[in-house]
Design brief:
The chain contains 2 helices and 12 strands; from the N terminus they run ααββββββββββββ. With 192 residues, the chain is mostly beta strands. Strands 1, 2, 3, 4, 5, 6, 7, 8, 9, 10, 11 and 12 form a 12-stranded antiparallel sheet that branches. The chain starts with a helix and ends in a 6-residue tail after the last strand.
């Protein structure tokens, strides 16, 4: 005799016996869409992506401060050793303790090769020598204390104006190397 109580266990038994019949349509309905891409499992997520605001970087050698860089914003660059900076103000200290002030719109500071690259309305001011330098790209090598401007550069002081297509300046020896087409204008006060 089939009672209600017997029907309760017959329903799971019927589902189990008929499994081969309904397995295909139900399995394809429940399968995830879009497939599986095995390359997603091999992704490396070691890259550090961050943004900092009001950044202050100080570099020193043997306890003596050699550079001080301030930026409105810094974020990671192409590698974790590179910082991309915006609105940069830098103070570079030479061996003779003379200060060089540098400003620019953007910059990159590479900690691995110890190099600062500034772009966009770069202005260099050397108060002791009373001159200003204007360019669009400036590379500063901390190890060799060299400023390299590979594009057109203007050097202006009270009695001298020099424009060249390239400028190299050594902070250790205070030597300039201006290349390309060089235009120089010396005021009459110096020619005596």
């Amino acid at each position: 005799m089939i009672t209600r109580r017997n029907l309760v266990w017959l329903i799971p038994l019927a589902l189990f016996i008929s499994f081969p019949i309904w397995r295909g349509p139900v399995g394809s309905f429940l399968a995830p869409r879009g497939g599986y891409d095995p390359s997603l499992a091999n992704r490396t997520t070691d890259r550090h992506n961050f943004t900092m605001y009001t950044v202050h970087i100080i570099q020193s050698e043997n306890g003596v401060k050699t550079a001080e860089i301030e930026a409105d914003q810094a974020r990671t660059g192409d590698s974790d050793k590179e910082l991309e900076l915006t609105e940069v103000d830098a103070v570079l200290t030479a061996k003779d303790k003379s200060l060089t002030y540098v400003t620019s719109r953007e910059g990159k500071f590479n900690q691995e090769i110890n190099k600062l690259t500034l772009t966009g309305e770069v202005v260099v001011i050397k108060p002791e020598k009373k001159y200003e330098l204007y360019t669009d790209i400036l590379h500063y090598d901390f190890m060799n204390k060299m400023i390299i401007c590979p594009v057109e550069t203007r050097l202006i002081s009270d009695d001298l104006r020099i424009t060249g297509s390239r400028l190299d300046y050594d902070l250790l020896t205070n030597a300039y190397d201006i290349g390309g087409r060089v235009y120089c204008r010396i005021s009459e006060a110096d020619v005596q």
